[in-house]
Give the backbone structure.
Amino acid sequence: MAESPVRDVIIIGSGPAGLTAAIYTARASLEPLVLEGEPSSTSDQPGGQLMLTTDVENYPGFPEGVMGPELMMNFKAQAERFGAEVQTVKASKVDLSERPFKVWVGRDTDGEPTYLAKSIIVSTGAQSLMLGLDREVELIGHGLSTCATCDGFFFRDQEIAVVGGGDSALEEAMFLSRFASKIYLLVRRDELRASQIMQDRAMANDKIEIMWNTSLVEYVGDTKIEKVKIKNNLDESISDLDVTGVFIAIGHKPSTSLFEGQLDMKENGYLKTQPGRTATNIEGVFASGDVQDDYYRQAITAAGSGCQAALEAERWLEEQE
Ligand code: NDP
């Protein structure tokens, strides 16, 4: 049974984008409902990717830094203080073909929708692709990272590894060369996927050593990474590599499967929004944060775009009335 009345706005996702949208729409008396997701071991969970980080030192307003989970708890408390309702459930289906929009949670997606809404803000985020090795999730923030901009600073004068051979990996490696004393770029094949200009720059960087045909196969260390085991993919031999940090840069995956066939997406699966805006191809549906951002991918830019989505939704709702 639909739990009417029709909501003014439903926000799907509870990272910096979703919860900022919640703060703004709640303060505009739109009584937003936030479907925050369900606990899991990936970034696809309440609070998003920051729940898997430790110190966040580049979020403005925290001169001493702040722990990722604490920051997200504060976002949530701030949204709830202004009346946002946060439900720990995952949206399992949406129907955006007509208004009010329909949202289902839980397994039964054949029956009546669980919620109806005049507008929807999609902030389902993105996930960094990982290698799938043992203890990978627990080591994030303890030597393992997916974001050089966020964590590079912690590896000053240390030897580290970057996994991947695309533009992201090379960009991360070059950024990290400002801090680390040595960067091993672990490339699983004998060629890079990155653009030629990035390859040229990386190869000209004295601190970067490319290890071809090499896969990382094990993280070693009790509470943090002390070294890793690598495999030579040509002769299958395993050896140790003494690094204290590992950056995984093998791509990202936006959480957009719920919207396939309904919202326009770019070739790489990220949601398409109007230039400089959060409006999608469906009037009344807005997208904010990493789910529509394959370029900046920062907590602060996600929060900014959550604010934009809230203001756009608010103005759009006003126009409807
Ligand atoms: P890509 O898909 O381009 O590259 C992924 C890289 O990771 C490849 O080298 C791939 O190897 C490797 N890889 C994938 N899975 C594994 C695995 N399990 N183990 C080891 N290696 C693995 O992703 P990017 O994030 O680098 O880039 C995404 C898009 O964004 C691209 O179009 C890129 O050009 C763009 N971009 C542009 C930038 C710029 O212009 N400044 C900066 C960053 C990204 P393999 O080749 O063997 O598949």
Q: What stands out?
A: The first strand starts at residue 7 and ends at 12. The pocket of NDP is lined by residues 131, 163-169, 171, 188-189, 193, 250-251 (CB under 6 Å). The mean pLDDT is 94.
